């Protein structure tokens, strides 16, 4: 059995002002190293809340989230920021690439922030099919190319976990399928575990297993 990257035990979240009403409750998850799972759920069910809890951007009100053996409830803001910067990669629907930086500079950013050498950038750009676009600015790229930049940037520093929030929501179906295949192959190559959050069953089908988020927990979905 590979070691666990992320464990959630009886995790619950109630936002302040909600009179004790829980958005999420009873969440149980065991994510093994290198595993790739999809979490599907209706709009408003708490998918962003779940990602925030996993990344230590927000704290659980019940239960415990453990990332690489560390309880997130015991990390102060600085420790949580460092953990995210070094050990987690993010891919978002709206890409979040920095417009003033070139493709190369966007992908290099996590290495620079972590004080790591930049020799991995060009091989990673080649692996995501952007070797000839290294000097371009994001405004000169298509949506699919921007998401390639995001994937390269999310994995360049070899995190153990990639969190992807509706990464193909802004892409046409053909480009989306290419990006999902690329995401999966890059996860395999870097050894990172992945969590794909989406409302699309088509997108979710690319993962090793699918879980449905409901207000009372995460339930396995049979393909
Ligand atoms: N900071 C907050 N304070 C209070 N309530 C919040 C806060 N953030 C989210 N909520 C509520 O928690 C619930 C879950 O929100 P969340 O954004 O996690 O859902 P989601 O599944 O990501 O939705 P979508 O797919 O539409 O983005 C919603 O009812 C929302 O109104």
Automatic annotation (TrEMBL):
Gene3D superfamilies: P-loop containing nucleotide triphosphate hydrolases (3.40.50.300). The keyword Signal does not apply. Transmembrane segments: none annotated. InterPro entries: AAA+_ATPase, ABC_transporter-like_ATP-bd, ABC_transporter-like_CS, ABC_transpr_LolD-like, MacB-like_ATP-bd, P-loop_NTPase. Residues 6-223 form the ABC transporter domain. CDD domains: ABC_MJ0796_LolCDE_FtsE. Pfam families: ABC_tran. Keywords: ATP-binding, Cell membrane, Membrane, Nucleotide-binding, Transport. GO terms for cellular component: plasma membrane. GO terms for molecular function: ATP binding; ATP hydrolysis activity; transmembrane transporter activity. This is ABC transporter ATP-binding protein.
């Amino acid at each position: 059995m590979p070691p666990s990257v992320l464990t959630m035990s009886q995790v619950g979240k109630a936002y302040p002002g909600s009179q004790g009403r829980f958005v999420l409750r009873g969440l149980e998850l065991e994510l093994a190293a290198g595993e790739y799972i999809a979490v599907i759920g209706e709009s408003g069910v708490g998918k962003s809340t779940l990602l925030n809890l996993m990344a230590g951007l927000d704290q659980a009100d019940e239960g415990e989230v453990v990332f690489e053996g560390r309880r997130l409830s015991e990390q102060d803001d600085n420790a949580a920021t460092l953990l995210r910067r070094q050990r987690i990669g993010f891919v978002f629907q709206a890409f979040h690439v920095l417009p003033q930086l070139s493709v190369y500079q966007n992908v290099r950013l996590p290495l620079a922030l972590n004080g790591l050498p930049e020799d991995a950038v060009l091989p990673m750009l080649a692996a995501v099919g952007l070797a000839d676009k290294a000097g371009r600015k994001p405004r000169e790229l298509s949506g699919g190319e921007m998401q390639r930049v995001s994937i390269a940037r999310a994995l360049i520093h070899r995190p153990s976990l990639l969190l992807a929030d509706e990464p193909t929501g802004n892409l046409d179906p053909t480009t989306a399928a290419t990006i999902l295949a690329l995401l999966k192959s890059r996860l395999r190559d870097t050894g990172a575990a992945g969590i794909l959050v989406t409302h699309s069953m088509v997108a979710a089908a690319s993962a090793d297993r699918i879980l449905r988020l409901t207000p009372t927990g995460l339930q396995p979905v049979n393909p």
